[in-house]
Specification:
This protein has 410 residues and is of the alpha/beta class. The protein has two domains: 2-7 and 32-176, Leucine Dehydrogenase, chain A, domain 1 (Rossmann fold), CATH 3.40.50; 185-337, 3-Layer(aba) Sandwich (Rossmann fold), CATH 3.40.50. The chain is built from 14 helices and 13 strands. The strands form two sheets. The protein has a seven-stranded mixed sheet, sandwiched between helices. Strands 1, 2, 3, 4, 5 and 6 form a six-stranded mixed sheet that branches. β8 (232-238) and β9 form a beta hairpin. Bound molecules: glutamic acid (GLU). Residues 67-69, 91, 141, 143, 170, 313, 338, 341-342, 345 line the site of glutamic acid. Glutamic acid binds at residues 67-69, 91, 141, 143, 170, 313, 338, 341-342, 345.
């Protein structure tokens, strides 16, 4: 299996060859502007010393301040963060936000730390990188393993150095200049575009079956949106395993269960299935909403869904992508499908800069506009050039970043 870095490079390469980009331009667009790797040493609650490694990789700022999440996960390394940073560059460009791309992370198992330890870890990380980020430079946000609470510690620590500065990070709690609807945004965006995709094939969510891998921030809100739209979510899963119910899972009950128990373990709304077998269920839509690299050379032949919507970042390896393409399975790529999160992050940042608050309706309306406008653009390019949606999305993203770079001058 290719790692995330090679995978992102391969998808870039494919679009670059359709665009006839020169090798020098390709090199410029692939090379990150700055890569930061820091030591985070801290005392654990029991007095022991622990040392972690933190990253912030700033990939490209041709179109504006760099933007991207902060991931707390034990598999975080420099290659993965760079790949994810480059995805952010293309993602913000595909949905036409005035941002570049960045990503950060700490190699840690957040579940092994107490809330106090997580707070110290976050504050120490901010101590190391605060000079390199900021509302006009690079704006972090939640990603896997981080949430609004982590962003609250983050902004609080940043402000100790720089004074009142809510726009330095997004995904904050509402009480601390966060935006209504930021938490639901990625899942909602996935739902909106799943519906838009089905519509192109004269289908609707209400007559479709859906399997969702991952029941964290993205998976839960995606499931809720699809359920409300009348779609039948027949399978869900998280790290503890999955549940399958041909009649449709009671999503509100599953959401309540997870809120109370912390995971799906013990939820009895269907038959138990593994995360792996969820991927090969016979459904209309498969939505990987958890880790990267879950659809591979080994299991892509077994996929029986007609459409795959990439709610996670990089869930399909390039080898698997080729197999799915040959089998006429339509893939809606991550840099478009999951851009709802960063889109509402942008709305949060705009409100912070203006000291003005939008209501939830306005946020939802603007999100829908941004997502469907971007989808229509990518769809029409894919049709016109007879290329997969992924290549079309990269074409839009790379094209916008490339033009900004040339216009600005090297
Ligand atoms: N972590 C999210 C992503 O991968 C959101 C980033 C942001 O809001 O800046 O798109």
């Amino acid at each position: 299996m290719k790692n995330a870095f090679e995978a992102a490079g391969q998808y870039f390469e494919e679009a670059a060859s359709v665009m006839d980009l020169s090798p020098n331009m390709k090199r410029l667009l692939l090379t990150p502007e700055r890569e930061v790797k820091v030591q985070i040493a801290m005392k654990l609650d029991n007095g022991d010393i622990a040392t972690f490694v933190g990253y912030r990789i700033q990939h490209n700022s041709a179109r504006g301040p760099m933007k991207g999440g902060l991931r707390y996960h034990h598999e975080v390394d420099a290659d993965e963060v760079l790949a994810l940073a480059s995805l952010m560059t293309w993602k913000t460009a595909v949905v036409d936000l005035p941002y570049g791309g960045a990503k950060g992370g700490i190699s840690v198992r957040p579940k092994d730390l107490s809330p106090d330890e997580l707070e110290r870890l976050t504050r120490k990380f901010v101590d190391e990188i605060h000079d390199l980020i900021g509302p006009d430079k690079d704006i972090p946000a939640p990603d896997m393993g981080t949430n609004a609470q982590v962003m609250a510690w983050f902004v609080n620590q940043y402000e100790k150095f720089h004074g009142f500065n809510p726009a330095c990070v997004t995904g904050k709690p509402i009480e601390l200049y966060g935006a209504e609807g930021r938490e639901e945004a990625t899942g909602r965006g996935v739902g909106i575009l799943t519906e838009a995709l089905l519509r192109k094939f004269r289908k609707s969510l209400a007559e479709s079956t859906v399997a969702i891998q991952g029941f964290g921030n993205v998976g839960t809100f995606t499931a809720e949106f699809i359920h409300r739209a009348g779609g039948k979510v027949v399978a869900i899963s998280d790290v503890s395993g999955g549940i399958f119910n041909r009649e449709g899972i009671d999503i509100p009950a599953a959401l309540t269960w997870v809120k109370q128990k912390g995971s799906l373990a013990g939820f009895s709304g269907g038959d138990a299935i593994s995360n792996e077998s969820l991927l090969s269920l016979e459904v209309d839509v498969l939505i990987p909403a958890a880790l990267g690299g879950v659809l591979t050379l080994e299991n892509a032949e077994h996929v029986r869904a007609k459409y795959i919507v990439e709610a996670a970042n990089g869930p399909i390896t390039p080898e698997a992508d080729l197999i799915l393409r040959r089998r006429d399975i339509v893939v809606l790529p991550d840099i478009l499908a999951n851009a709802g999160g960063v889109t509402v992050s942008y709305f949060e940042w705009v409100q912070n800069q203006q000291y003005f608050r939008w209501d939830l309706n306005r946020i939802r309306e603007e999100l829908e506009k941004t997502m469907t406008r971007s989808f229509d653009k990518v769809w029409s390019i894919a049709e016109e050039k007879k290329i997969p949606l992924r290549t079309a999305a990269y074409l839009v993203g790379i094209g916008r970043v490339g033009r900004a770079t040339v216009l600005g001058g090297i």
